[in-house]
Write a structure and sequence with these properties.
Elements lengths: L15 E5 L15 H6 L1 H7 L3 E4 L27 H13 L3 E6 L9 H9 L4 H4 L3 E2 L22 E3 L5 E3 L14 H16 L4 E4 L24 H4 L15 H12 L7 E4 L5 H7 L6 E3 L2 H5 L4 H18 L4 E3 L8 H4 L8 H6 L9 H17 L3 E5 L20 H5 L43 H4 L6 H15 L5 E3 L7 E6 L3 E6 L5 E2 L5 E4 L8 E2 L3 E5 L1
Parallel strand pairs: 1-2, 1-11, 2-3, 3-7, 7-8, 8-9, 10-11
Antiparallel strand pairs: 4-6, 5-6, 12-13, 13-14, 14-18, 15-17, 16-18
Helix pairs in contact: 6-8, 9-11, 14-17
The structure holds alpha-D-glucopyranose.
Length: 548
């Protein structure tokens, strides 16, 4: 059995980590926005679900220009979400229940409301305060053009002009100025932040935009030309490490420095990189003397196709093991269309275009999507390594694709000039009960409207109901704890086309039928099935089983 005890330094290697998006989890104080007390009050849900840890998306002071990833103070709690005492109470209760706590660190940028940026605006060109960020004069006769052609991930130029004529860099929203990681004060401040939360009992960190911190800021700054904004595709077109702002080799020095901080604690603090980079480069962030783990977005992006998934799984395990890391798996998070909806989009559908159509083009079959999502989850939970779950997926929640335009909050909506709807549809507050003004999320309405269909997905509506998605997750996680040992798998030979079939250490096996036709069910005691098996001996399409 995997040793997930609190003092085991390797607890993270095969842990299941549940992502809480605090503003959408539970609202204890009734202001419509989820808060830390709401999380604490519902930690029992995580304990009975059977996860090992929770990762808290940012809960820091923020004007919510980017859902909390615009941090105005890295060492405090947003007053709308609570206080540092509430945070301490959350950690204490989590630890009492045997759950680890992972905090989200946002080092690439601050909010424009951060005291440092406000000081930089006041201090003017050439000041030390501006050196903490990336300020430059513009191009053109009067400096009226941005310093380079760099594009924001959210759309438009990555440069914003300030009244004195200089421009500052923001790879995300204009309210998120990028820090200059060549500045020693910036480095020192984040060391303080890591120690601050570690001292408060945080067990690990998720590092936001881990591949963006180092930039080539040598003069003159280089244009990227046709390399585009988001990085990952662009990174395949340039020699590794040579893009001016994504995935530069120098970024690894920062993480080697942080590792010394993590290792000063007992057990050592863990970390996982959010790095949208190609597979082989991702492993560098996960080296044991750096962050230890990196999210595997290739798995998330893979089509529902046996050959493609087998290739991604084999490749991911090999790269993670070569780096000394454990593999990671994720199907949903706060940035992507929920997998209960995504996996049912016909191959080649752009999820962004589907969202723009309000989820009507193409129309999706919700039941079919949920069936596939359950099969995908059961497959993921059988893989060696750690699995990251996103709040609500244990309820089978679909994407809310038809949010009315007037409620949209994601800066992507405005920054793309309404060409992309953004990520609000996966951030709609959770339903806890089938009744109530916000289905048990809080005493009143929630900050994003929930569709009526959420009632049927509520935690209370699924608890104890045989065959519900929630009970499937609970059963799978309970079994997983019992069955886990080594970090390898063996592909079974002779699986029919469209079927993934692999064995794990203690004599158990996971079989998924991704094809369109039923196949024969291999022999063995049935431990788990992602959907009812109507005919004995038959594994229907879009179904995963675990067999002893
Ligand atoms: C990460 C976060 C995303 C955020 C961005 C900028 O990708 O997951 O939500 O918008 O960083 O901080």
């Amino acid at each position: 059995m995997a040793d997930l005890s609190s003092r085991n330094p390797d607890w993270w290697r095969q842990a299941v980590i549940y992502q809480v998006y605090p503003r959408s989890f539970a609202d204890a104080d009734g202001d419509g926005l989820g808060d830390l007390k709401g999380v604490t009050e519902h930690l029992n849900h995580l304990a009975t679900l059977g996860v090992d840890a929770l990762w808290l998306s940012p809960f820091y002071p923020s004007e919510l220009a980017d859902g909390g990833y615009d941090v105005a103070d890295h060492r405090d709690v947003d007053p709308r979400l609570g206080t540092l005492d509430d945070f301490d109470a959350l950690v204490a209760e989590a630890h009492r229940l045997g759950l680890k706590v992972v905090a989200d660190i946002v080092p690439n940028h601050t909010s424009h409301l951060h005291p440092w940026f406000q000081e930089a605006l006041r201090a003017g060109p050439g000041s030390a305060a501006r050196d903490r960020y990336v300020f430059r004069p513009g191009r053109g006769a009067r400096g009226e053009l941005p310093p380079t052609d760099w594009q924001s991930v959210f759309g438009g130029s990555a440069w914003q002009r300030v009244p004195d004529g200089e421009w500052y860099l923001h790879l995300f929203a204009p309210e998120q100025p990028d820090l200059d990681w060549d500045d020693e004060e910036v480095r020192a401040d984040f060391r303080t932040t890591l120690r601050f939360w570690s001292d408060r009992g945080v067990d690990g960190f998720r590092i936001d935009v881990a591949h963006g911190l180092s930039k080539d800021l040598a003069e003159p700054l280089r244009d990227v030309g046709g390399l585009g904004a988001t990085g990952e595709d662009a990174l395949l077109l340039v020699p590794p490490g040579s893009h001016p702002y994504w995935d530069r080799d120098a970024v690894h020095e920062i993480y080697r420095d942080w590792r010394r901080i993590f290792d000063a604690y007992d057990p050592p603090r863990t970390a996982v990189a959010e790095a949208w980079v190609p597979d082989a480069r991702r492993a560098l962030y996960a080296r044991p003397d750096e962050l230890g783990q990196a999210f595997n977005f290739e798995y998330l992006a893979a089509r529902w196709d046996a050959d493609e998934l087998r290739r991604v799984i084999t490749g991911s395990l090999a790269t993670a093991h070569a780096a000394g890391a454990s593999a990671t798996w994720v199907l949903s998070n706060h940035d992507v269309v929920r997998h209960a909806s995504r996996l049912t989009l016909p191959p080649g559908t752009d999820p962004g275009a589907w969202l723009l159509s309000g989820g009507t083009e193409p129309a999706v079959d919700r039941a079919a999507g949920l069936r596939r999502a359950r099969a995908a989850t059961a497959l993921m939970l059988a893989l060696p390594g750690s699995a990251y779950l996103y709040q609500g997926e244990e309820l089978g929640l679909p994407e809310v694709a038809d949010l009315p335009e007037e409620v949209l909050q994601d800066p992507i909506w405005t920054q793309t000039g309404h060409a992309q709807k953004g990520r609000d549809g996966c951030r709609v507050p959770l339903p806890w009960t089938p009744e109530g003004p916000s289905y048990g999320f809080g005493p009143g309405a929630s900050w994003l409207p929930q569709p009526e269909s959420f009632a049927a997905y509520a935690v209370a509506a699924q608890t104890g109901v045989e065959g519900s998605t929630l009970e499937l997750y609970r059963t799978a996680l309970r079994l997983r704890r019992k069955l886990l040992d080594g970090e390898t798998l063996t592909w079974m030979t002779g699986a029919p086309p469209g079927v993934l079939d692999f064995a794990r250490g203690r004599g158990w096996r996971c079989v998924t039928n991704l094809g369109e036709e039923p196949v024969a069910l291999p022999a063995g005691e049935l431990l788990l099935a992602s959907a009812p098996l109507a005919d004995a001996g038959i594994l229907p399409p879009d179904t995963t089983v675990w067999l002893a």
